[in-house]
Design goal:
This is Urea ABC transporter permease subunit UrtC. The chain has 15 helices and four strands. The chain is an all-alpha fold and 374 residues long. The chain has a two-stranded antiparallel sheet with strand order 1-4. It has a two-stranded antiparallel sheet with strand order 2-3.
């Protein structure tokens, strides 16, 4: 009895290789990085890991689903502001005040009604996990059910990010253009303590590994195959009896869920959140990292987001006015000449090496003979 193989199975990493990859990543994040980096640099890396979490979701929605998400700053901002509101209320309670310090300066003597639920840590955590995903679910149903896609969806999502940033600027109760900052505690832990700062890094590193593992399972599942099929041949998927809108909504919602969690962790690590961190420019910056790393791969968005954020932090210190132009030029070069990103170049090189070895008559085949999948 012959065994039927699917060509896809031969290109997927096996469980041993996957486990080794996660073990290596965990070793780098939990052992090597804390040992060689100062507390300041470790905090910077934690900030970059927050961007990487957003990038994983974009890779799923854009790379696998073909949805050019230019508005992830909205979901990042929702998670960030909800966490910031809780931290400011907790700090006020530690001082014995009824409202946060910036509200006292602005003359606000009573906590606004929409702030009150975030006094509870449990409500805050649930809201961070559910609200960005719920907003994405409702928005996705409204957009994808009407078959809005391509450039129209990209413009709509970008306009949403701009509107959200403008709304926050006009709100005194959320700090206006200055945002929320000067957080002193994180669920009872003193943020001035270096040990607690390292704890935050370990938390965000663990979240990143969990997000990557969950995304990998989605990509390799039946749903992942349908998502790629919708990206490539949406009408054929509809003809087969599936609703492409539902498939897109799931990926869009998952990406928003990841972005909300990343925003929530960004706040205690960086110490500030403002409209400048969630508008059009940050949303495009998320996208640039994914494009450079390789949007169709699993680790490409992670490495691209970390690399671009590191380059921005490093180069902007020496060339503050030139970094924006360099970032735009890099994005144009990648999209125009290397659409698959850096990870795509590596895959192309492996394919060429494999093809050369196959064409060599002295090389004996080491793979099983394939039969059509039944």
């Amino acid at each position: 009895m012959s065994t039927t193989f699917h060509p896809r199975d031969l290109t997927r990493p096996g469980p041993v290789r996957t486990a080794a990859g996660f073990a290596l990543a965990a070793t780098i994040l939990f052992a090597l990085a804390p040992a060689v980096l100062s507390d300041f640099r470790l905090g910077l890396l934690g900030k970059f890991l927050c961007f990487a979490i957003v990038a994983v979701g974009i890779g799923l929605a854009w790379g696998r689903g073909g949805m050019l998400t230019l508005g992830q700053g909205v979901f990042f901002g929702l998670g960030a502001y909800m966490m910031a509101m809780h931290l400011k209320i907790a700090d006020a309670e530690l001082r014995g005040d009824t409202v946060p310090d910036f509200m006292q300066i602005a003359g606000i003597r009573e906590l606004p009604g929409y702030w009150a639920p975030f006094a509870s840590p449990i409500v805050t955590i649930l809201a961070i996990a559910l609200l960005p995903a719920l907003v994405a679910l409702l928005l996705g149903l409204g957009v994808f059910k009407r078959r809005v896609k391509g450039a129209y969806f990209a413009i709509l999502s970008q306009a949403l990010a701009a509107a959200f940033a403008i709304l926050l600027i006009g709100q005194q109760s959320t700090g206006g253009s200055n945002g929320l900052n000067r957080f002193r505690s994180f669920f009872g832990f003193d943020l001035a303590d270096p040990a607690n700062r390292r704890m935050l890094f370990f938390i965000v590193a663990a979240i990143l590994l969990l997000v990557v593992a969950a995304t990998r399972q989605l990509m390799q599942s039946r749903y992942g195959e349908l998502l790629v099929a919708v990206r490539d041949q949406e009408e054929r998927v509809r003809f087969l009896g599936y609703d492409p809108a539902n498939i897109k909504v799931v990926a869009y919602t998952v990406a928003a869920f990841f972005a909300g969690i990343a925003g929530a962790m960004f706040v205690p690590i960086v110490g500030i959140i403002s409209p400048a961190d969630i508008g059009i420019v940050p949303s495009i910056a998320f996208l640039i990292g994914v494009a450079i790393g390789g949007r169709t791969t699993l680790l490409g968005p992670v490495l691209g987001a970390i690399g671009v954020a590191w380059a921005q932090t490093t180069l902007s210190e020496s060339f503050p006015s030139a970094w924006t132009y360099a970032q735009a030029l890099l994005f144009i070069v990648v999209i125009g000449f290397f659409p698959a990103g850096i990870a795509g170049l590596a895959k192309l090189r492996r394919r060429r090496t494999k093809a050369d070895s196959t064409d060599d008559p002295t090389t004996s085949p080491s793979e099983p003979e394939l039969e059509p999948a039944r």
